[in-house]
Task: structure prediction
Amino acid sequence: MRNLKSTTLIFELSKKGRRGAHLPACDVGGPSAAELLPAEALAAEPPPLPEVAEPEVVRHFTNLSTLNMSVDTHFYPLGSCTMKYNSKRNERIAGLPGLADLHPYQPESTLQGILQLFHELQQYFGEISGLPAVSLQPAAGAHGELTALMVAAAHFRKLGQKRTKILAPDSAHGTNPASAKMAGFEFVTVKSLPTGNVDMDDLRSKLDDTVAVFMITNPNTLGMFDKTVGEIANLVHSFGGLIYLDGANMNAILGIARPGDFGADMMHYNPHKTFSGPHGGGGPGAGPICVTETLRPYLPCPVVEKTDGQYRLVYDKPDSIGRVRSFFGNVGVLIRAYCYIRTHGPDGLKRVSETAVLNANYLLSKVKHFLPVPQGARCMHEFVASGLTLKKSKGISAMDVAKRLLDYGFHAPTVYFPLTVPEAMMIEPTETESKETLDSFAEVLFRITEESGELLHEAPHTTPISRPDEVRAARQPVIKWTPAAT
Ligand SMILES: *Cc1c(COP(=O)(O)O)cnc(C)c1O
Result:
C-alpha cells in the first residue's frame, strides 16, 4: 500500500529545459532588464526552480492533496477543534466576484456592501454571545484571546489599577497561558476537580486585587458544562477582575446559553470551528471578540459603524488599543460565518448545537462500554475517553489507537489533552455526521482495542510514512532539500 511516488519531490521530477508553457518571443520594444537594473542587481544564473511540464505539476500537486485527511474525505473527530463538514454553498458565496475581488484600498463609498455585512455580523455575534461590543479584526482564536487581554489591560490602566495576573484552570488550552504572557501578564494555574469543574477553593485562594482576568473554557475540554460558572463570575467580579470565556466550544451552546448571561465580560469565537470557515493546514481563521459595553471603548480600530445610512470604518477612538491586524481581518472567513448564521437562522443555530450534543452523547454511549470515559454519564459536544486500562493490560497507548485509526480511514481524535486525563482521547463528532458514520467509527474503535500490540505499535501501515521519530524530528529537523551530487 506504500505509495512511493507520492513522496517524490517536485525538484526530483525536474528535467533541464522542460517547460510548463512556451511563450512566443516578446515582439514589443522597450528597455531590457539589463538596461533597467544596475548590473549588481542582476542574477548570473536563473533560480534553481523545478523544470517540469504542466501535466507533471498538476499530477504532483493533485496526488499530494490526496495524502492528507480532511473533512471532505474522512470523518475527523478531533476534539476541541470542531472539525465539522463545511457547506460548499458558503465557499461559493465567499468566492463571488463582488466579494472576492474587493480591494481594501477602495473608497469607502464603494465598499458599502461588505461594510454592511461586517456591521450585521457584529450584531449577530453580539446577539449570540450576549456581549454587545464586537471586533472582527483578530486573525485566529489565540489572537482573539491576546486582543481581549490587551483590551482588559487598557481598561485597568484607565482605572489606574495595577493588575498583573491572569488565571486559568489546568485544563485550559495552551493558547490561554501563551496569550497571557504575550499580553504582558503573569500566568497562574487554577486546579480543576476530577469532574472537570474549576476547584473553587483553589480559585478563591489565588484571587486578590492583582488578578486582571480569569479565563474559562465552558463547556470545558472534558465536554462538560461547568454549572458553577455564574458563581465563579460573581467571585472574580467581587475582586474587581474580569471573566474571559474561551469560546472555542461555542458549537455546543449556540442559541442555548449566552456567555454574557452566565457572567463573561469578554470572549472570542473561532469561526473556523463553529461557523464553517475552512480549518486546518495553517489556512486563515478568524477570532472575532465580543465584550461588554464597559469595555467597548478599548476595542481595536477600525470598528464598523452606521451613521446617516452610511457604513463607515471608524478610526477615531481615543481609548482604543489600536490595530491588531492589517485592513479588516480575514474577510473570507467572516463572509462564510455570515452566510452560516444567515442560512441557519436562530432556530437552525440552536438545532446545530442540539444535534452536536446528541451526536456526542450517542457516540459516548457506545464507546464507554469498551473505553472508560471518566466523566462519562453525559457530555456536551465532546467527551474524553481514557486508554489507561488498555495501556496497563496490553501495553497499547492512546497514540497507538490514534495511529491505527488512520488505517481504517478515520482521522485520529485529539490525544493526551487535557493533561488531567491519563491516555486521553478527546472525541468530538460534530452535528454533520450521520448515525452510520458514528456507528462504524465506534465499531472500528472497538475492533482496534481487540487487536494485538505488535500490530498497533507499528501503525499506521497504509500511509506514505508510518511513524516519524518525533524526538529526532524536533531535535534534528531536516527542513531543506539538498540535490544529490551529480
Ligand atoms: C482552538 C482553540 C483555541 C485557539 O484557537 P485558534 O483559532 O486555533 O488560534 C483556543 N482555545 C480552545 C479551547 C481551542 O479549542
The first strand starts at residue 133 and ends at 135.
